[in-house]
Amino acid sequence: MTIERFEADERLVRRLIDSQFPQWEQLTLRRVTPGGSDHVIYRLGSDLSVRLPRHTGAIRQAAKELHLLPRLAPALPLSIPEPVAVGEPDLGYPWAWGVSRWLDGAVARYEELGDSVETALLLADFLSALQSVEFTAAVEPDEPLADHDDQVRAAIADIADAFDARSLLAIWREAVTAPAWDRPPVWYHGDFHTGNLLTTGGKVSAVIDFGGLGRGDPARDLMMAFTLLEGRARRAFREALAVDEATWARGRGRSLMGGVFAYRAYAATNPWVKAQTTRQLTAILSA
What we know:
Elements: H1 10-20, E1 29-32, E2 39-44, E3 48-53, H2 61-72, E4 83-87, E5 97-101, E6 106-107, H3 110-113, H4 117-132, H5 149-158, H6 165-177, E7 186-188, E8 197-200, E9 203-207, E10 214-216, H7 224-227, H8 231-241, H9 245-266, H10 271-286
Antiparallel strand pairs: 1-2, 2-3, 3-5, 4-5, 6-8, 7-10, 8-9
């Protein structure tokens, strides 16, 4: 699949803001680094953030978050982004982009929270609350794992010099052949991993980046068990969510898929992503 990419520089973002939202033209603009793999992020003044997709895979997120997040936020025990506006393609920038309230905090770190049962239970509470939200909305369909079989096998082959490909394939086969989710669909975050958690005062305070938000199989959100948690914290997380064997296998497969795709795409250019996905795939292999 060919993915169109575009990197919005500060001069362009300033012009987009000033032309579409003149009420903010006096606010300072500062790029946030390293930002994300899907978006270029700028801080606008002290209270706002501007997120512009880097590629076509993220171009629907701004509108989705503006529509859905205000309806989810009251039910959730952690802060989530508060969308303010959606900007239009203009001045050579090709896609819609979003403005949200700024959320303070640092990205969660395994070294600080990986063995924290308190953190595991808080994250399980967040997912339980999200899964319990009852409203429905039109979202992208929840694709079965088997739909990605060829791509995952190819990605595993591509990274076989860094990981035990035979064992990764065995874990993937187990996930693909596990019984499917046969209960009513629930809301899932869709990209629930360490990089999408913010902490303040050493505790998780917010969950960000809801581009993968949807309804279906909650196994999608078990990625956190392999990107952040270990040992007793991982066990506490699973027990609090009452995850059965089939859902755990599918969740491990979802995490494997995300890990191998991200490692293949970014390991050569992004040291942070390489370190995170290495830990993720190592945890999957040892769990």
